[in-house]
Amino acid sequence: MTGGDHAVEVAKLGDIAAEAGLHRVSMLAWRDLDDPEAGGSELHASNIAALWAEAGIEVTMRTSYAAGHPQVSWRDGYRVIRKAGRYLVFPRGAFSEMMGWHGGRDGLVEIWNGMPFFSPLWSRCPSIVLLHHVHAEMWRMVLKPAALARVGELIEFRVAPPVYRRSRILTLSESSKAEIVELLGMHPENVDVVPPGISPRFHPGGTRSPHPLVISVGRLVPVKRFPLLVGALVALRARHPTLEAVIAGEGYERAALEAQIRAGGATSWLHLPGRVDDDDLLDLYQRAWVLSSTSLREGWGMTITEAGACGTPSVVTDIAGHHDAVSAGRSGLLVDVNGGDTLVAALDNVIRDNGLRAALSAGAIEHAARFTWDMAARGTLDALCREARRRSRPTA
After folding, report:
1. Backbone phi and psi for residue 352, each to the nearest 5 degrees, phi listed first
2. Residue 309's closest CA among 268, 351, 391, 370?
């Protein structure tokens, strides 16, 4: 999309919002983009907020406290309020919005990332809910002791669904929608699919690594299951002695992964550079032969389509979200969610078969071209505007 096309789309966003009476919108999120553990959900929210702000909508995002950052600041035209800790942000954020402490609003976007804010119980303005995926097994992977994990499961599967059953819910993929309907009992007609976008900075170019290079990008947390990927890479190295690998990201599993890499004798070729900046990420995508993800839960997997936009195919687990981020057999390969051997075999095929890799690379570029942030911002705003118009209709 050219700069002129983008300007037209932004102007349309402003007109659509104004026609629906949406001038001030609040967003409630668990974490901010500046949080050390920020991931795809935070990137998604930030991009939507920035485009809405560019269109003239006054956007305020309320999140938890981020160490080293002020409680109130501005980013890309929208206001960020960071108050309360990881758990207190839910009651405090809801209460402050309910009381209007940060100004009035015409619309509300709740980002339900595991623990909900229960906005249908207290919000009186048009609202939508962004739910990227069901958390399910993630509770037991992240929360200790087990009793605390059971509380999370109880809220997600029993307490929250009746509260949100009449809400307009947005998710990123058709496969995630299917899980939300099946596992949470939501009505399918109330769940819309709006895929995420891809920044135009991700594009083909650069120079491919002269040696096989496998990359993965994500937070070093249990749900990403990087130990499974490290084990597969060590096995793959036996087949490809010049193989290199990079797992870019930060998180509390770093020490355990470093120990696993040392134990596998992989420190010279398997690297954990931490969280990388945009330029380094682009370089990684453009140099890599293939991207891999062993995640157990995803709403989409934005690194898959970002890499795809750079012509890098993917080998990823066969889960909801990945089903849509990958065009199976055309832009990448899906492998059994628990199969280390199938992961090794698929990565081996892509590395060994130059023709397959070239075909998947072309397919990845074509598939990624379908997704833009302008379209994501428009689809999300359309849903909120429909709710605003629905509420403004006179009752019989």
Report:
1. -75, -35
2. 370
CA-CA distance, 60 to 48, in Å (whole number)? Answer: 12
Per-residue confidence band for 396, with pLDDT thresholds at 50, 70 and 90: very low
Question: Which of 225, 254, 247 is closest to 141 using CA atoms?
Answer: 225
Q: What are the backbone dihedrals phi and psi of residue 74, each rounded to the nearest 5 degrees, phi first?
A: -120, 140
> Whole-angstrom Cα distance, residue 225 to residue 298?
12
**Predicted pLDDT of residue 252:** 92
pLDDT recorded at residue 2: 65
pLDDT at 359 over 80: yes
List the beta bridge partners of residue 79.
60, 74
> For 139-194, how does the pLDDT look when each residue is reduced to its tens digit (9 = 90+)?
888 888 889 999 999 999 999 999 999 999 999 999 999 999 999 999 999 999 99
CATH architecture for segment(s) 3-197+372-392: 3-Layer(aba) Sandwich (3.40)
Fold agreement (3-197+372-392, 213-368): yes
User: Which CATH number among 3.40.50.2000, 3.40.50.300, 3.20.20.10, 3.30.420.40 corresponds to the domain 213-368?
Assistant: 3.40.50.2000
Backbone phi and psi for residue 159, each to the nearest 5 degrees, phi listed first: -80, -50
Contacts of 393 (CB under 8 A, 6+ apart): none
Q: Where are the domains of the chain?
A: 3-197+372-392, 213-368
DSSP state of 208: -
The helix, strand and coil proportions of the chain, stated in percent and rounded to the nearest 5, come to 45, 15, 40
